[in-house]
Design brief:
By secondary structure, the chain is α+β, with helices and mostly antiparallel strands. The protein has 14 helices and eleven strands. The strands form four sheets. The chain has a four-stranded antiparallel beta sheet with strand order 4-5-9-8, with no helix packed on it. The structure holds flavin-adenine dinucleotide (FAD).
Length: 408
């Protein structure tokens, strides 16, 4: 039994400091430019690949940290550097988690390396679940996957939206309906290998924040993938569908599905990203408040300003603790009986939005300009109450978990 400690171990401190160096020296100086350009920051991703930060090896190592803190420590530091660039580097991770949570060992070994490529030939991956009419309401998904038994191929047809790296990724993980009668229990995840005919990028979105991260529609027009691209395999799917049909016949619950398993696993990691943005904005505000003089004294001498900073710091630390708790629970096999993963994402996302707004206020007029980074951080933070389940949906998940009532 591991001893309880709030201290990071030597390895974790080493990783944190190494990423902090990359965030400070490579990401921060490039952040404003890529935010303005609104393009995928290939040079920064390649730089991360060159030092091993954008690599399967590195993420697998962090993912396997027995304390669970490898991933949150990594992501907090990366997103402290910049959220748009951070997501351009970390976006592949969501698709990789999709394969880790639903795939067989063989599928993990085949596809995850192809999602990252190597330092000389960097690859990306995308996780495609959301659709124009199925955002929070995952059960409304329409993209169909039909099995062509004669050819042992699945045929995918539909339109996905809001996909991070959608259309520019080498490997796409697509969630689709295999049995419409079963609602979200009738979903399955598929790998769409590189250069598969029929998959194309639709609209690329122009966004409020995280503008260096590519977000687009993905159109699937009769995309044929081999049978082995069904994550988990056909046998497991058939068993799962049979159980779901039995439960449905008895009027049982709708249960978990492939996309939900991915989101549950990724929520604390998304919370860690939000903590990184909030900490970055707080640090800028603290420095500014110490040096900006009005009425003959630094503005931090006013309780009105200092108390805001005290609240900001307290919220950030509380958010980090929730993220670390959920990450530790996941790594040590403790189920999220009270939706602790959702709690961490909800609180950290709301914290990032609030703290970056407070930071902008503390910087006054300067905070509102692009001369200072806090307005970008505030724009970036806004997505953290929306994607990977909105704050309202996190509250729904938590409320259901703690009450046992199927609250709508
Ligand atoms: C930049 C960006 C990147 C993204 N990346 C990905 C990705 O890589 N892969 C992917 O699959 N998806 C991705 N998404 C999609 C994201 O997860 C969805 O936008 C999100 O789940 C919300 O869905 P929606 O936009 O359709 O909003 P809607 O579901 O239409 O919600 C609209 C509003 O209604 C509220 N609402 C809805 N239902 C309820 C309810 N039952 N109770 C209370 N309030 C409710 C919501 O909280 C929200 O405030 C991304 C989105 C963005 C903007």
């Amino acid at each position: 039994m591991a001893e309880f400690t709030m201290e990071l171990n030597e390895d974790q401190v080493g990783v944190r400091d190494w990423i902090h160096g990359f965030a400070a020296e490579v990401m921060r100086p490039a952040a404003a430019e890529w935010d303005e350009r609104e393009e995928t920051p290939w040079p920064v991703i390649r730089e991360a690949a060159k030092i091993g930060l954008y690599s399967l090896d590195f993420y697998a190592q962090q993912f396997l940290d027995p304390t669970g803190l490898g991933i949150p420590v990594t992501l907090e530091e990366l997103f402290w550097g910049d959220a748009g660039l951070g997501l351009a580097i970390a976006g592949t991770g969501l698709a990789a988690i999709g394969v880790f949570t639903n795939g067989t060992d063989e599928q993990i070994g085949t596809w995850v390396p192809q999602m990252y490529g190597d330092a000389n030939d960097v690859k990306l991956a995308a996780f495609c679940s959301s659709e124009p009419d199925a955002g929070s309401d995952v059960a409304a998904m329409r993209t169909r996957a039909v099995f062509d038994e004669a050819k042992d191929e699945w045929v995918l047809t539909g339109t996905k939206t809001w996909a991070t790296n959608g259309g520019i990724a080498d490997v796409h993980v697509v969630v689709a309906v295999v049995d419409p009668a079963l609602g979200s229990r009738g979903h399955a995840s598929f790998i769409v290998p590189p250069n598969t005919p029929g998959l194309s990028q639709g609209q690329k979105f122009k966004k409020h924040g995280i503008r260096a991260s590519h977000t687009a529609e993905v159109v699937l027009d009769g995309v044929r993938v081999p049978g082995h691209c069904l994550l988990g395999g056909k046998e497991k799917l058939d068993e799962r569908l049979a159980r779901a049909r039995e439960r449905a016949a008895k009027g049982g619950d709708r249960g978990r599905n492939a996309a939900m398993a991915t989101f549950e696993a990724s929520r604390p990691a998304v919370g860690a990203q939000a903590v990184g943005i909030a900490r970055a904005a707080y640090e800028v505000a603290l420095d500014y408040a110490r040096t900006r003089v009005q009425f003959g004294r630094p503005i931090i001498d006013n309780q009105g300003v200092a108390f805001q900073l005290a609240d900001m710091r307290t919220r950030i630390d509380a958010a980090r603790l929730l993220v670390w708790r959920a990450s530790w629970m996941a790594a040590t096999g403790k189920p999220f009986t009270s939706a602790e993963g959702s709690m961490s994402k909800l609180f950290a996302g709301e914290t990032a939005k609030t703290v970056t707004a407070q930071a902008m206020q503390i910087l006054g007029g300067n905070g509102y300009t692009r001369e200072y980074p806090v307005e970008r951080m505030h724009r970036d933070a806004a997505i953290y109450t929306i994607f990977e389940g909105t704050s309202e949906i996190q509250r729904l998940v938590i409320a259901r978990a703690v009450s046992g009532v199927p609250i709508r």
